[in-house]
Structures are given as C-alpha cells and as structure tokens.
Amino acid sequence: MRRRLAARLGQSIVVVFIVTTIAFFVIRAAPGDPFSYEDSSRITPEVRAQWRAQFGYDKPLIVQYGRYLWSVAHGQLGYSVLRRESVAAALAEALPRTLTLAGLGLLLSLAVGIVIGTAQAARRGGWFDRITSFILLVFYSLPDFWGALIVLLIFAYWWRVFPPGGLQDTMHDYLSPWAAFTDRLKHLVLPLGSLVLLTMAAVTRYQRGALLEVLPADYVRTARAKGVSETRVVWRHALRTALAPVIVLLGVALPGMLGGTLFVEKVFGWPGIGMLAANAIGDRDYDLVTATVIVGAVLVVVGNLLADALHVALDPRVRE
Amino acid sequence: MNSAGPPRARLLTNRTARWSLVVIAALVMAAVVGPLFTTQSCVAQPDIVRLKNAPPSLSHLFGTDAYSRDVLARVLCGARISLTIGVLAVIVSTTIGAAYGLVAGYVGGRVDNVMMRLLDAFMSIPRVLILIAVLAIWTGHHPVPLAGLIVLIGVTGWFTVSRLVRAETRLAKNADYVASARALGASDVRIMLRHLLPNVAGPIIVSSTLAVGNVIALEAGLSYLGVGAQPPTPSWGSIFLEGIDAFTSAWWVVLFPGLAIVVTVLAFNALGDALRDVLDPRQVHFDREIPDAAIGFASVSPPAPPPTHQLAQNG
Q1: Residues 6+ apart with CB under 8 A from B232
Q2: For residue A1, what pLDDT is reported?
Q3: For residue B301, is pLDDT > 70?
Q4: Which of A12, B9, B174, B204 is the most exposed place for a label (fewest CB within 10 A)?
Q5: Interface contact flag, A143 B258, Cβ < 8 Å
Q6: How far is B33 from chain A (nearest CA, A)?
C-alpha cells in the first residue's frame, strides 16, 4: 500500500510538471509581454527594452522555459510585475483565504450532501426524494457566478443582513478582538453559503447514486434479515460502504470546485487565488498567471492524493 | 423505470425526458424565430436618456438595460449565440474525446498507459483558470472571434468523455463481433469506427448532453469575467456583464438572462439524466440485483461518474 501511495506521489509530481509546461507555453504563446502594456508616452523604447532584458523576456522561448523551470525547482515562482512583489508573497497572502473558503465549503457541502443523499436513497421515489431531487437539480444547474450574484442581491442589498463582500470591514483594525472575529465571520457567510449551495447538489447526487448501488447488496439483505431496523441498515451498514466512492469522486471533481470558488471570490470580492488570477490575467502578469495555474493544479493533485488516502482508510478492500 | 422497448421509445415514456425535450425545443424555436417576432431590436438603443434601465413593463417585458436596449429581445438574440456556442463546443470536445478514448482503449498496452497518464495531467489543469488566461491574453491583443471561443472551450472539455469512452472500449473490444470483424479482414480504423463506436455511443450521448448545459454556463461565466463573447454580441453572459454595474438597482438586466441560462442548463441536465436511465444498462436494471453493484465498484472504477464539471460548474 505504501508503495502504491509512493507511486501516486511520483505520478503527481509528473502531472504538476506537465501542467507547468502547458501553462508556460500557452501563456507565452499569446502576443506581447507584461511591458507591452506600460504607458508608452512616458516610457522610451530603450527603457522598455532594458526592462525586457532585465526580466529575460528578450531571450528565446526555450531559454525562458529553462530559466523558469530552474527557478521553480528552486522554489522561486518569479516576480509579479504589477504588484511589485514576489509571486510567492502574493500567493502566501491569497492562498490561505482561498483554502479557508474552499475547505470549509467542501466540508459543509459534504456533510449536507451526504445526509440529504442518504435520506433520498433510503426512500427512493418517495416525496422527499422527488422534491429534493428537483430542487437540487435546479441548484446544480445554476451557473456559479449567477447563483452567487443572486445570493448577494437578496442577502446584501434587498435584505441587508450581511456585508456585500470583501474580507473584513474597513474599521476592522479598530474593533475589539471579539467584534473583529464576528466581523470576519459575517463577511464569510455569504461567499461560503453560495459555495455550499452550489456544491452540495453534486455531493447529494453522488451520495444518492452510490447508496443506491450498495442497497441491493447481499450483506444489506443479511442485515435486514437479522432484524436490524431499516434506519440502522441504511445509515450504518449501507452508508459506510457508500461513502468510499463519494470521497473518490470528490477528488475527481476538485478542478470544478476550484472554478466555482474562483467565481464566488470574484462576486464577493474575496481576495483569494481566484481574484489574484482574475486581476493578474487581465494585466498580463505572466509569472503570477502561470503560478496561479500551477497552484491550482497542485491543489487538485493534493486533493486527489488525499481522496486516495481516505479511500484506503475507508475501504479495506483496496488495502492489500 | 421502463426497461422494455428500444431506447427511443423508452425515452419518450420518461416524463422528465419529455419535459426537457419540450423545453429544449422551445428554446431552439425561440432562438431561431424569436428575434423575428419581437418588435424591439436587440441592438437598437431607442432612448438612452428616458429608457435607461427601465424596469419591466408591458412594452418591455424584461425591462431595458443601461443603453435602453430591450432585455427580452437581447435574451432572445442571446439564445442564438449561447446555444450555438454550447452545441458546437460540445461537438468539438466530444469528437476529440471519443477519438482519444477509442484509440487508447483499443490499442491498449503501453500506448494506453502513456495516453492515460497524459490525460491525468490534463484533468488536473484548472479549466477555468487556463481558459481565462488564454482568452484574456488574446482579448488584450484583439477580440477573440466566436469560433476561437468555441474551439478553446472544446479543446479544454474532452477529458472526461475520453475517459468514459476508453473504459467502454476496453470492455467492448473483446466481444465476439470484434473478433469476427477482424477475422473478416476489417482494418483497425474500420473496427473502431464501424463496430466499437456505435457500441460505446451511450455514454458519449449522455455526457455530451450534460456538457451542453455546462458549456453554456461556462461561457456565461467567462463573459461575466469579460473574456467570453465580446459586447455588443449578446450572449447570455455578455448581456448581464453590461448590466453588472447597476445590478443592485436594475436587477432585471442580470436576472432574466440568468434565468434563461438556468432553464437551459436544467433542461439539458434533466435530459442527460433521463438518457442515462435509458441508455446505461447498469442503471436501467437498477432494481434487479446485479453482483457488480454489490462488490465491484469500489475496487474497479467509481460508479458512472457524472462528468467532472458537475461539482461546481465550469470545471
């Protein structure tokens, strides 16, 4: 088993390398460079040429690629031309925020989705199953950003219960510790709520499907035959087996989840990786863009590894 | 669940399928003939001072936007753009995905191994990020034409399909009909296209149906970020991109195109689900006990996963 996980780890590194390569060339393939944007009336061509030389944009693409790989291998992700700071510093600020949002969102939607999905499967075709299935199919069909916008409109503008966006209040630094904490929480509610609303529908569908596959199994029938109550059969015996595929599927679904987080961040002005990427891309901040794509891929890969490890922990059949 | 009769008949006895087909047909009709019937043009700006952001009324059912354009007319025009993008992009991605999956599954061995490792890498690329990156950089240079947008969305969307097709192909290629075709001297290409492809069509149809809705939502999201269909071209996303500045007061500019997207995506998702019920034998015979369901799934492969994107859309 340890060997299998080691092999997966090796694979993951290869995956990140390939993604890095793709991101690098795709982004450089576009015409221009970060300095094409600088206001030309204030900057002489000589200055621009000097900047290009300083950051290596005048070298052949393959040399730039080599230099980039070399520096990434040494833990240097480059320099953000627009933010005037190292990419690592920008990421160090944004990444924890995104992880908070996406991590909490994932946990909450897992919890809600597993409970609803199990309840649906327990009484398949019943009124609860049909009503929630339809409602969740609607949620499932909401475009992420639009769902978030509507949440914003309802809860921050029509019914002003939560702040419309941002990480904290402008007066945050002057608040008492407790007030500062609740201020942070208030700002988290809407983005987190939107993310859960949009994600739990998928979890529920997976959970319902996985449980329906397990329910006809012999051991479930055995449990019933032994007189175990139906509730206990579903929630203890069947659910335990049905959790494993859901966890694995979530690993597969992570890239989509990341996309969803990106839109939610944009709508609520949550200054995480998504916002960083959205701004960096518009401004052609090459190193920052490439780095956000790499970080995205790393998050996906790590998520998959975690899902794999969890699968092993939950399902003894794959342990040998 | 109806498990008798040919797929088409079973599909039509399925209530969800009937409804979603009706909705999709209505949407297509609205897109094709709708703009001919509205009295308003989708680009005309009749009175930019007095009709700016007018709320919904009898003469403008969905209100008007910041340029005094009729939102209903724009939503109808947007249907053309959005549906076209959805269908064409999915044709691109399904073609690539089916070809890749067929080859990997049929050839097998080391080729398959390499192709699958590559696919793992592709699947780890955050689709939205890479799309925004490419589109934004090109948009900065000159506007990306619709065809370019369609191709880009297509070439980033074939990974799940190809994985499904490969799995199905591996199962199908050992069947007797493949052996007999080979014995009759059929070439590999012929076997793949004429014998294997029709037999793996089920999952392809299901996943591409689901993908159409997803792509429409994705394009809207890209438009919302300013890198999708470029104004004044009215895709559903670009309509409310132009309404976003005033969206707390003129909410109708954002609400109605959004609802159009939701209805469309919902219809395609529901149809995809219904198709899966009809075409996927594992699910059709759900009520009967199949040993596969009890023991196999966890150690082989996850149960027919809805395509990756569905957790959060736009994946």
Answers
A1: B43
A2: 65
A3: no
A4: B174
A5: yes
A6: 25
User: Do residues B100 and B115 make contact, with C-beta atoms less than 8 angstroms apart?
Assistant: yes
**A125-166 pLDDT per residue, tens:** 889 998 998 899 888 888 888 888 888 888 888 888 788 777
CA B137 to chain A, closest CA, distance in angstroms equals 6
Show the tokens assigned to A192.
């987190």
pLDDT, tens only, A5-43: 788 888 888 888 888 888 888 877 766 666 766 556 677
The pTM is what? Answer: 0.82
Closest CB from B218, B248, B302 relative to A157: B248
The ipTM (two decimal places) reads: 0.81
- Rounded to the nearest 5°, which phi and psi values hold at A80? -85, 110
Binding-face residues of A in 132-161 toward B, CB within 8 A: 137-138, 140-146, 149-150, 153, 157
Nearest Cα residue in chain A from B306? A206
Rounded to whole angstroms, the Cα distance separating B188 from B199 reads 15
Please give the C-alpha separations between residue B63 and each of A234, B71, B78, B262, in angstroms, as whole numbers: 50, 6, 16, 19
Least confident of A18-27, A256-265, B17-26, B227-236: B227-236
- Which residues of chain A neighbour B123 with C-beta distances below 8 Å? 252, 255
Per-residue pLDDT of B147-170, as tens digits, reads: 889 999 999 989 888 988 998 888
Using the beta-carbon criterion (under 8 Å), do A143 and B133 form an inter-chain contact? no
Q: Is B175 helix (H, G, I), strand (E, B) or coil?
A: coil
- Distance between CA atoms of residues A13 and A302, nearest Å: 10
In sequence order, the 6+-apart residues with CB closer than 8 A to the CB of B262 are A138, A141, A142, A143, A146
- Cβ separation of B258 and A213 shorter than 8 Å? no
Q: Please, which residues have CB within 8 angstroms of residue B202's CB and are 6 or more apart in sequence?
A: B168, B279, B280
Beta carbons of B106 and B95 less than 8 angstroms apart: no
Q: Do A252 and B302 touch (CB under 8 A)?
A: yes
